[in-house]
Amino acid sequence: MNSPLSPLVYFRRNASRALPMGLVIVLAVFLIAGVTVLANAIDLTVRTIYRYTEYFTYVLPQQRFREVPEAQRVLVEADPRVERTMEGAFFLCNIKTVMGRLPFVVLGVPDDDRDYLMQRMGTSLIAGRLPAEGMPEAVLSEPMVENKHLKLGDNVVSPTEQGGMATAAPVPVKLVGILKGPVWVGFTSKSFCSRYFLLNPLCTLYTWKDVGQRDELNRAMMPVKNKAAGKLDPGSVQVLSKENLITEVRESLESLYMIMGVVTAAVIFAITLMSGMLANIYFTQRLSEFGVLAAIGYSRATLIGRVLAETALLNIAGWLVGAGLTALTMRFLGESVFRARGLFLNPFDLDAYAHTIPVPICITLFSVGTIAYRLLKLDPVTIIERR
Questions:
Q1: Do residues 48 and 141 touch, judged by C-beta distance below 8 A?
Q2: What pLDDT, on a 0 to 100 scale, did the predictor assign at position 148?
């Protein structure tokens, strides 16, 4: 026989009463976690698309220069942590994302540097061939080909290119090969870029001997915040590193995250108030039950403990169901809807679920607090006499 104080007794006998409050918790968790997953997807998308910055760093000249000044290149080459420096050119093509069209660099470097970078990134050719020297040809990684809906022989960019930040190409650039690997990347020949894309500056790339030195090396070249404190002159060059990219993205999203914080707080407040009212309504319907338990000798502390156990159990179950529903929904939407539109979702984003933890805590504290106040004032004799 179950103890009358077991929290499971009420749920078994009054499932129809517990269900509405449980659904409110589920929907609150789903709403907050889902919105946070979608917001964090912007950051994840940028980090995924520009993940090549984990393997090499660009040094670009400022607008008054056509190429990186010799004095700046010497400083990069002289650092003992640098494994290799390369001179490159590039053109930009558009990729589609839910934030609009973003520019993506198709890099032109000598063949030996291209092979070195492909090996470093774990990328290999799976279809077609590599670009011929000086020809308007390019190879792109599989995700880029899918994103742009291309096939071998199609134009990567063309003279009629419109929209986004990519400039129209003087001649059509054909897709001649497809790459497979963990990184979005595109290659063409340096001589082709240098000859036709005269408005694009020439760049210097460098890699590091030890991946653990990457951020330290990039900060030594040009810190993200105090750029003048680095080896390189910010008046002559700019450095496109992973840390720099992530910092810029997150700074641009600060307002969005602030709005999300306000919305989350408002949702938590509204849900807490609604759940507390429901809990008190259900408690009023159970006054006779608690009156009898108090009359036969159960202390107020014991009864409050029962309310706490029931509320906590309902909130934990609601949170788990809400989190599971969010993960399944976001996984389905990520694979079937958003990935094709250039947005990457992490359905198991721990940060998103951390935002929902205040929901069960606030509901439990508010509900138990208001009911505990009423229990302390409860007169079991009056309740029994009314029966």
A1: no
A2: 87
Q: Which is it for the CA torsion 108, 110, 112, 113, positive or negative? A: negative
3-state secondary structure of 92: strand
- Counting the structural domains of the chain, the total is 2
Q: How many CA atoms lie within 13 A of 252 on its CB side?
A: 11
Residue 149, number of CB atoms within 10 A of its CB: 9
Give the percent of the chain with pLDDT over 90: 36
Structure tokens at 349: 């984003």
pLDDT in tens, 220-276: 999 888 888 889 998 999 998 888 888 877 777 778 778 878 888 888 888 888 888
Same domain, 341 and 377: yes
Q: Tell me the pTM.
A: 0.76
Question: Which range marks the domain in which residue 133 is found?
Answer: 50-251
Residues 247 and 258 in one domain: no
If we measure between CA atoms, which residue out of 69, 83, 81 comes closest to residue 233?
A: 69
DSSP type of residue 116: H
Residues 320 and 334 in one domain: yes
Task: Give the distance, in angstroms, between the CA of residue 103 and the centroid of all CA atoms in the same chain.
Answer: 19
Secondary structure (3-state) at 73: helix
Query: What is the pLDDT at residue 163?
Result: 56
CB 91 within 8 A of CB 193: yes
1 is a domain residue: no
195-209, 247-261, 373-387: which range is least confident on average?
373-387
272 neighbors 370 (Cβ within 8 angstroms): no
Strand 100-108 and strand 203-208: the pairing is: unpaired
Regarding whether 302 and 222 lie in a shared domain, the answer is: no
Token digits for 228?
């003048």
Q: What is the mean pLDDT of the chain?
A: 85
DSSP string, 163-227: SSSPPPPSS-EEEEEEEESSS--EEE-HHHHHHH-TTSPPEEEEEES-GGGHHHHHHHH--SS-G
What are the C-alpha distances in Å from 197 to residues 27, 87, 106, 213, 296? 53, 15, 12, 34, 89
For residues 95 and 224, membership in a common domain is answered with yes
Q: Please answer whether residues 124 and 134 qualify as being in contact, where contact means their C-beta atoms are separated by less than 8 angstroms.
A: no
Residues 36 and 58 in one domain: no
CA distance 3 to 292: 14
